[in-house]
Amino acid sequence: MTNAMFLILIVEDDAELRSILRTLLESNQYRVVEAATGERGIIEARGHRPDLIIADLGLPDMEGARLIGEVRAYSPVPILVLSARTMESEKIRALDVGADDYVTKPFSAPELLARVRAALRRATRGSDTLPLLNFGRVAVDLGARTTMGPVGEVHLTPLEYRVLECLARRVGMIVTQKQLIRDAWGPERMGDTRGLRSYIKTLRQKLEPDPGRPRYLVTEAGVGYRLRVDEAAAER
Amino acid sequence: MTNAMFLILIVEDDAELRSILRTLLESNQYRVVEAATGERGIIEARGHRPDLIIADLGLPDMEGARLIGEVRAYSPVPILVLSARTMESEKIRALDVGADDYVTKPFSAPELLARVRAALRRATRGSDTLPLLNFGRVAVDLGARTTMGPVGEVHLTPLEYRVLECLARRVGMIVTQKQLIRDAWGPERMGDTRGLRSYIKTLRQKLEPDPGRPRYLVTEAGVGYRLRVDEAAAER
DNA sequence: GATTTTTTTCACACCTTCCTCACACCACCC
DNA sequence: GGGTGGTGTGAGGAAGGTGTGAAAAAAATC
């Protein structure tokens, strides 16, 4: 599969940065469309149906969150958010309404490309079956709700599966604590992270090879959690 | 077998989404009927006898669960549920009353098509093959309704076979208590788990090598039960 | 109608799941 | 160095679901 199959929409008001991004992506064989404003971005997204959207949060004409919400209403296309380090709350907000990942400015080329690859991988990978997760020694089949370890089956409780499933739906992407709590517990419980923390712990204990040093279920401090998969296991 | 054999009923109030669905399905050679309300949906389902129903849960005129219940009362047609919320409770509810699968909005075209294919495949391959179950020392032939143990035949009552059959239809997967009660006793009895618990007990007594420590007929606390098969017996 | 089988019901002990709490820890900032 | 906010940890307890044995009720059989 070649990168030329992928069309990426860049929504960025700064002309210079826009140009840098285009050059970087095109030199990696991605096809690129640009939009200088949020308004244009929404239109281009509808028109071109890109495979990935890279959107700056600091747009002059609209809140970044609005752009994301509009697109999310009809499409699951991965959205990568560019944010300045000072806009922490804005960033979390963007993730909450459906962005997939963020890159803080200034960023390095390899970093951005890695995020782009990860996001595209998530989108293209088997949407037909709930994924089989591979945690080194432990394998989780979310569809059948079975978890096999080296010494037989590992038992997960309903809520544990629910939390894991929320993370698995966006493998490799960030899931905010809000999203996790809302999806696993329900909106009433929003803001109460105690339960979540407990469940992350037991999940690590049951799944991670070394629970003290999480390798797959990693913390994104101040934001949420991210489920990583082995590169080898990701391709098939 | 061509897709044109299949008639799909879409029950969706949002005209735009309805149109998207129609286009998507028709471009894959499916035949399509539409209904804008739940009331219409029930009528169309009775009239056209579709091979698959795609129903939005968030209908304006009735609970999604009611639509499913009405249809399920007279037909085993596969029902695919569209859900805006990612909320588990909604989905569990839908599956409990008889939906076959769910897709959360927003969804991608390949994802929906994959679910449609899977649902139709499940429906067409019918209930022909009732598997031979192997419980270590006891073997059950559900088709012939015979159960052989180490010391001759073991006798199972009609209801015992029925409960076991429900579990066997979904070997390896979790079957909720509600599903079991609905399929073995009928919808009137839903919510009353006493009988089920009794039958699980006797089934274990008759089939398990060590009834105190279930190995094949295992409990999924808070959800239901699952029938596990031996590794060796699983492959064939 | 009597006997046997099957199904339903009940109460209680037991176990799992889930929630909660207090505190240790870590990174970062002043 | 001492905050400060967020996260990880272990243990305890409440709530509710599940297993159990036996006995009553219903249905099937002779």
Sheet of most strands of chain A:
5 strands, parallel
Helix content of chain A: 25-40%
Record the strand order, biggest sheet of chain A.
2-1-3-4-5
* Euclidean distance between termini CA atoms of chain A: 12 Å
Low-confidence spans of chain A: 232-236
Q: Structural class per helix/strand content of chain A? A: alpha/beta
Tell me the series of helices and strands of chain A, N- to C-terminal. EHEHEHEHEHEEEEHEHHEEH
Instruction: Enumerate how many helices of chain A there are, as a single number.
Output: 9
Count the E strands of chain A: 12
How large is the share of residues in beta strands of chain A? Answer: 15-25%
Please state the overall shape of chain A, judged from the principal axes of the Cα atoms: globular
Provide a concise account of the structure shown:
Two copies of one chain form a homodimer. Chain A is built from nine helices and twelve strands. Chain A has helices at residues 15-26, 38-48, 64-72, 88-96, 109-124, 158-168, 177-184, 194-207, 231-234, and strands at 7-11, 31-35, 52-56, 79-84, 101-105, 132-135, 138-141, 146-149, 152-153, 174-176, 217-220, 224-227.
